[in-house]
Amino acid sequence: MGFFRNQQIKAAVRLLSWQYEKNESERPNQAFLQRQAEKLVDDAHRIARERGGNVLSILKEMAADIFRK
Q1: Calpha distance 35→25 (Å, rounded)
Q2: Which residues contact 63 (CB under 8 A, 6 or more apart)?
Q3: pLDDT digits over 23-66, tens only?
């Protein structure tokens, strides 16, 4: 994994943790958050390639969508 991808995953983990706290949900274990963040980053990169855009803003939208459902 590259440096930037690792940083994006760390940011996604922090974003997901914040979303769990904000919604007063029980925070899952670190391994689950890591897997969920990796999937979000992969999906955000795919979307950015297809439509263009900033990966971080796409991550924010996707994390918010997880908790809207």
Answers
A1: 18
A2: 12, 15, 16, 19, 40
A3: 888 889 999 999 999 999 999 999 998 988 888 888 888 888 87
20 burial type by CB count under 10 A (0-12 exposed, 13-18 middle, 19+ buried) = middle
CA distances from 19 to 1, 11, 29, 53 (A): 25, 12, 14, 22
Question: What values do phi and psi take at 17, rounded to 5?
Answer: -60, -45
C-alpha–C-alpha distance, residues 42 and 64, integer Å? 16
Residue 60 CA, chain-centre distance (Å), reads 7
- Binned at pLDDT 50, 70 and 90, residue 1 comes out as low
